[in-house]
Specification:
With about 350 residues, the chain is α/β, with parallel strands linked by helices. It is about 40% helix and about 15% strand. It has 2 domains: about 240 residues, Type I PLP-dependent aspartate aminotransferase-like (Major domain) (Aspartate Aminotransferase, domain 2, 3-Layer(aba) Sandwich); about 90 residues, Aspartate Aminotransferase, domain 1 (Alpha-Beta Complex). Belongs to the threonine aldolase family. Keywords: Lyase, Pyridoxal phosphate.
Amino acid sequence: MAFIDLRSDTVTNPTDKMREAMFKAEVGDDVYGDDPTMKELEQYAAELCGKEAAIFVPSGTFGNQLALFTHCNRGDEVILADDCHIVAHEVGASSVIAGVQLRTLNSVKGMIDPMEVKRKIRKASDDIHYPGTSLICVENAHSSGRVIPLTKMESIYNIAKENDISVHLDGARLFNASAYLKVKPSEICGYADSIMFCLSKGLCAPVGSILAGNNEFISKAKKNRKLMGGGLRQSGILAAAGLVALKEMINQPIVDHENAKYLANELSKIPGITVNDDIHINMVFFNMQDTNYSSCKLVEEFYSKKVKINGEENGEMRFVTNYWVSKKDIDYVIKTFKEILDVD
């Protein structure tokens, strides 16, 4: 029996079509602009976002940090949520690479108050003590598993434009948000000046993310990407998988979301398990404090039964569905969970 992996959707393997496309990909030196497959991917991705241009980057973190590095000058201030991925899971890279100051705002279910954003904007010219606000970052779908309403994004975007400030969207799971909101990705991207989204995760490509924006922004970002070590050579091999992801896999989140709801419903039936009701995408958050069972021990027990999970973080457990987790797999996970806890 192969392992069932619920740790994240980052664990997805490429599909057979991706492997075949990678094998047959026409390539060239992308730093010279000679890779036709990469050019096709970047153009296709830009059109999907409704933007003028796009570039391929090695990872989502790379894409977010490249956006900060390109939008901002050293010492500028960036407004964003206190629990967003850029703050919580990107190793403090913004201080190392872009040299910016992060001004974090209180987040409620992944959302920041547009009026609080407005109040926190600072202009360097107003006071010699102030840094200038040059960027606002939003995340959708949020890494908490929640999707942000477009009305919230629109309000923040309008405030940014009134103050001549750019907006960057961390859209690592853009297509999950699109599926939940039942809108085209470009509609979400319309409320941001730059967008990063992952080709990996739920779309199953093995490597890579996209950063999209207008021509001027992407031209500047290409030079900064080179500075950061992201100038790749025959990268069309990776782009080929990305094209399959964008042309054939962007509806996969719909299936993953349904499986997540099924998983959440079945978990809620287990005594001692409390499931977070906000199942917007492919993430199921829950706590098992009432079971008095150690999450570390649970990780070991599941692993011995061919299931990979992560331990708790801040008192919560998280299971993530993806292309390689079927409904049958979920049934096995639930059965195994009950056996471990020794409940019916």
